[in-house]
């Protein structure tokens, strides 16, 4: 399996987040990538590949131009009046207020975000661009005949909407990849999001489209972030009706319950018969994840990978969440190994 990654993710360092009412060092930290690289290297799961540059056109196929312009200029605008510390949104619009982009950078930060988990520092935008290139390079490899690839993206992307960042996510790498598969001739693409948190961004981007099936297995949003999307009754709308499936699970879910949801999601994917499968791989389902409440253990990720392999589809694995840094490498490597051994 080709493992695509870039050291440019390191530019997204020193960032913070607002957690439990306090500004703390971000849980989405650079060490996550080092631990994954070490684990997949030790297992010799595949060659490491550098991403090729794809520019912003593929990103602009799923993201709004004003949002991407904001991401590319936010740090300059934030520091223009002397602030040399990480940028966080603080002000958001309530229903009934106007969805207008202010001139003021603090207003822009709120206009283009849905939480205070998307911190911008000097190297964030470069890291985000590299993440999109990593996912797109994975598409290239699979479109050119590879059976699978692993896009080791950082920062993650599945919470990012077409015009909104949040949940540590800026550009939706999985959504960019799905659109790229379609642009290269795929008729149908399935996205299976196994991150602990609902991939609200990916769902939202494809919600009214039948050419991308989005399946999410995640913590019940009645209890857990992102709270305001990810309910079981969200089945798609208009032409997309029937092409979105959510499998919310209660806190404390272990692989017995989680695996049953995976089975149901895999049946939907098989019936959809996509030309390619994208797995949004978050391993924050792990029992010791610091911000999550599921109970999966490391051997379960071997079973997860093996079940996905049984679909027999060209598969692009896109890295999303997972914050138990000491175990993230083992859990990602187990998922990939399960996928490869199928
Ligand atoms: N108490 C819930 C805080 C959630 N904070 C954002 C989590 C983003 C996960 C990305 S996979
Ligand atoms: Zn997550």
From TrEMBL:
GO molecular function terms listed in the Swiss-Prot or TrEMBL record: histone deacetylase activity; hydrolase activity; metal ion binding
Cited SUPFAM superfamilies: Arginase/deacetylase (SSF52768)
Protein name: Histone deacetylase family protein
Family label: Belongs to the histone deacetylase family.
Histone deacetylase domain residues: 28-338
PANTHER family xref list: HISTONE DEACETYLASE 8 (PTHR10625:SF17), HISTONE DEACETYLASE HDAC1-RELATED (PTHR10625)
GO biological process: epigenetic regulation of gene expression
CDD domains: HDAC_classII_APAH (cd10001)
Cofactor: Zn(2+)
Domain of life of the source: Bacteria
Lineage: Bacteria, Pseudomonadati, Pseudomonadota, Alphaproteobacteria, Hyphomicrobiales
Keywords: Hydrolase, Metal-binding, Zinc
Native source species: Ancylobacter pratisalsi
InterPro entries tied to this protein: HDACs (IPR000286), His_deacetylse_dom (IPR023801), His_deacetylse_dom_sf (IPR037138), Ureohydrolase_dom_sf (IPR023696)
Record's keyword annotation contains RNA-binding: no
Record's keyword annotation contains Transcription regulation: no
């Amino acid at each position: 399996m080709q493992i695509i990654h870039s050291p440019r993710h390191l530019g997204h360092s020193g960032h913070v987040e607002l957690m439990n009412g306090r500004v703390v060092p971000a849980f989405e930290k650079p060490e996550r990538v080092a631990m994954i690289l070490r684990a997949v290297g030790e297992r010799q799961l595949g060659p490491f590949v550098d991403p090729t540059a794809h520019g912003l056109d593929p990103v602009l196929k799923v993201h709004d131009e004003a949002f991407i312009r904001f991401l590319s200029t936010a740090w300059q605008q934030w520091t223009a009046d002397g602030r040399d510390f990480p940028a966080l949104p603080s002000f958001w619009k309530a229903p009934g207020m106007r969805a207008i982009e202010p001139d003021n950078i603090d207003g822009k930060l709120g206009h283009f975000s849905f939480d205070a988990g998307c911190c911008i520092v000097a190297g964030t935008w470069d890291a985000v661009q590299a993440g999109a290139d990593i996912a797109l390079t994975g598409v290239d490899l699979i479109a050119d005949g590879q059976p699978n690839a692993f896009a080791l993206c950082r920062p993650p992307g599945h919470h990012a909407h077409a015009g909104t960042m949040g949940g540590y996510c800026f550009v939706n790498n999985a959504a960019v990849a799905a659109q790229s598969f379609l642009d290269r001739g795929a008729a149908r693409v399935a996205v299976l999001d196994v991150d602990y948190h609902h991939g609200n961004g990916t769902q939202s981007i494809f919600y009214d489209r039948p050419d991308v099936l989005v399946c999410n297995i995640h913590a019940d949003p009645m209890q857990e972030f992102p709270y305001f999307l990810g309910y079981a009754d969200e089945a798609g709308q208009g032409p997309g009706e029937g092409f979105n499936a959510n499998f919310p699970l209660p806190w404390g879910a272990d692989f017995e319950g989680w695996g049953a949801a995976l089975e149901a999601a895999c049946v939907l994917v098989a019936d959809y018969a996509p030309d390619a499968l994208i797995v949004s791989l978050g391993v924050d389902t792990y029992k010791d994840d610091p911000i999550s409440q599921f109970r999966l253990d490391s051997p379960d990720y071997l079973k997860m990978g093996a079940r996905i392999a049984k679909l027999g589809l060209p598969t692009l694995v896109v890295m999303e969440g997972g914050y138990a840094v000491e175990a993230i490498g083992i859990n990602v490597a187990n998922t990939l190994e399960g996928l490869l051994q199928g």
